[in-house]
Structures are given as C-alpha cells and as structure tokens.
User: Fold this.
Amino acid sequence: MDKRNIKIFLILASIGIFIFACITSIISINFYNRRVQCLYNGVVYDNGDKFMSSDNCNMCACNNGSVSCTLKACLNNNSTNVKLPLKGLEIYCYTADNQQLYSILPGTNRLKTYEEVTGTLNVLSSPVEDFINKTKEDASKILLKYYGYNEQSADHALQNCTPAEDLK
Assistant:
C-alpha cells in the first residue's frame, strides 16, 4: 500500500470508529434512561411514573432517578384532605366599625397597602372590588363559589388570614 491509500484508509477507519462510538452512546443512553428507577417509601418506580405522595395529597414523579413532588398545603382531618388557599390568593382580615371584615385578593409580586386591602384606596378593578370589605359569612361564600373550597377549608383559610393592620 502506498502512503496515499494508507491515509484514505486511516481517515475512513477514523470516521467509522466515530460513527460506531456515536451509535453505541445513543443506544446506551436510551437503555439507561429506560432502566432508571426511583425508590420512594419502599416502593420502586420506573422513570416517568407518577404516584401519590405519602401525605395522600401531593403528586410525585420519578424523573431520572430522582423523586419530585408537588408542595400543596394539605390539611388532614380524619383522613379527609381539606383544600387550603390557592397559591397566589391573599386573604386579609381587619376590624372596621367594630366588625371583623375580610378581603380576598389575587396575589401579586408586590406588597399591598392597608388602603388597598381595606378598600379605602380604590385601585383594583372588578370583580376583585366585590371581594373587599366582606363579612366572614360573605367571604366564606366567595371562597366556596369562586375558588372551590369546602366549608371546612374556607373556615380554616379565614381563621389564618393575614392581618391587614400588619400592612400599616
């Protein structure tokens, strides 16, 4: 063989080895991804499996050997989960005219002022305006009707409201 043929042979051999390495890598990665499993509370799950977390409220998934779960706030009452406030929903409470009042507002990335929460500064638009300065009974009805709460979770949410006085 002359030098030119040897060069061509080495180039072709190098390309062949490179292609073989790429194909082998792809096959082994796909095989590995299908074989990855997760262990959660003594149970083995395959990659991509979704399952109920140990609190019987949140959902978990097996992703590349790691378990990740949602972090919803759940209240367990006699083995019945109670729906708690939606993330991004802010419930404020305050006293006006010797009466406990509530404001139910969508969450934002900024702090609200006392005036916004109590409705003395009208900067919010409908229908949110209808959710300000409500009695406990009316606030509970709003949570039941618009946010899908049950009576127990609405009562719990109102008991754990953010005091508007803290915003002063």
